[in-house]
Amino acid sequence: MTKAFSIRPFRNGDEFAICELHVAAIRAVPETVYPRESIEAWADGKTPEIYVKIQKDIGEIFRVAVNKDDHPVGFCGYLDNEIRGLYVHPAWQGKGIGTALMRDAEEKLVAAGANRLVVNAARSAYGFYQHIGYTQTSIGSHTMRNGQKIEAAWYEKLVVKKS
Predict the structure, then answer these.
(1) Are residues 116 and 158 in contact, defined by beta-carbon separation less than 8 angstroms?
(2) If exposure means fewest CB atoms within 10 Å of the residue's CB, which of 1, 42, 64, 111 is most exposed?
(3) Which residues pair with residue 12 across a beta bridge?
(4) Which domains does the chain have, with CATH numbers?
(5) How far is CA 129 from the centre of its chain?
(6) Which residues, 6 or more positions from 33, have their beta carbon under 8 angstroms from its beta carbon?
């Protein structure tokens, strides 16, 4: 059986589908995790152009999970030793895409010399990061564009480069 998805580098034009899936993934966060107004503040202001700008301006790398039709269903952004974002479209969650994107990013970061990986995770993702071997190091908050704050925690994973 072939995998229902594959992972590839970001391509011009992906920004539209990535923006759509990013917003959909945020809006799928249950209101038992964050109030609806916080979820909407988190989703607010996402435009396709920001993904291109982030890559160009700060050098963040995006890896994209795509379905058999090469349509983006998830993505992971990273820079230096930090996972800066990991989102999977709600219709594709629970199929191993998030884990595959993380393993892909970890492999690339370790190959580039990172030995300590970090991620600032929303409360809705705490269990996911713990499940894949990350340890919570602190709890704080993340400030949205409108000034509203949501709880978020820093996680880390120490890695050893295999020779």
Answers:
(1) yes
(2) 1
(3) none
(4) 5-158 (3.40.630.30)
(5) 11
(6) 122, 123, 124
What is the Cα–Cα distance from 123 to 141, expressed in whole angstroms? 10
Q: pTM surpassing 0.90? A: yes
Structure tokens at 89: 């479209």
Q: Tokens for 78, please give them.
A: 């990273």
Reported as a single tens digit per residue, the pLDDT across 59-69 is 999 999 999 99
- Pairing mode of beta strands 116-122, 82-88: parallel
**Mean pLDDT taken over the chain:** 95
Sign for the pseudo-dihedral over CA of 160, 161, 162, 163: negative
Nearest Cα neighbor of 88 from 79, 76, 106 is 76
* 24, HSE (Cβ side, Cα atoms, 13 Å): 16
pLDDT reported for residue 9: 98
Average pLDDT over residues 26-37: 96
